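Why this split exists: single-chain examples teach little about how molecules sit against one another. For that reason, every record in the complexes split bundles all components of an assembly together and asks for one structure covering all of them. Below is a record exactly as it appears in the raw files.
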Amino acid sequence: AQTVTQSQPEMSVQEAETVTLSCTYDTSESDYYLFWYKQPPSRQMILVIRQEAYKQQNATENRFSVNFQKAAKSFSLKISDSQLGDAAMYFCAYEANSKLTFGKGITLSVRP
Amino acid sequence: DGGITQSPKYLFRKEGQNVTLSCEQNLNHDAMYWYRQDPGQGLRLIYYSQIVNDFQKGDIAEGYSVSREKKESFPLTVTSAQKNPTAFYLCASSPDYYNEQFFGPGTRLTVL
């Protein structure tokens, strides 16, 4: 079975600084997708970024980028120039065979 | 506006009663999903449906039932057999297997 591990339950970052959220996963599949979702206090799940496993190039979306290490089964999210609105829970997720598996999430706080 | 709606936002039920959570989407997506979110647990898949009149059990289907009579609708029934039903329930949809899932705003179910 696929598993997704987010080992850090909480992190904090100073506004305008950079923070990296870690995620590892376990799978025997060769074709899959990886995602980072954000859940603010409203509890609405918002897609932050996605990465196709067959692509070697790391995905980037404005201030958000990933470090995808397929051999190490690692998928970390880097948030640059952190803003107060980035404070939320962040979930790493893995998708294969039409099923999405989530990690337990990490709570990110942003200090003004 | 296209999107996913869930109703009601808050739901209270007495122990031993069945209750149905609504999920509707007007995105013309084929696949729909139900997740349960508990504190510290991330999201866990209850049921999913890839086409009308077909659905599959997820990781925690016991005590739940679903139907998919229309493409737009995927209601979830929490039965009295579910031993710990108090949780936050999220519905999602996706246009195909390997695209990201779009989430509704969620329903908070409390069993009194």
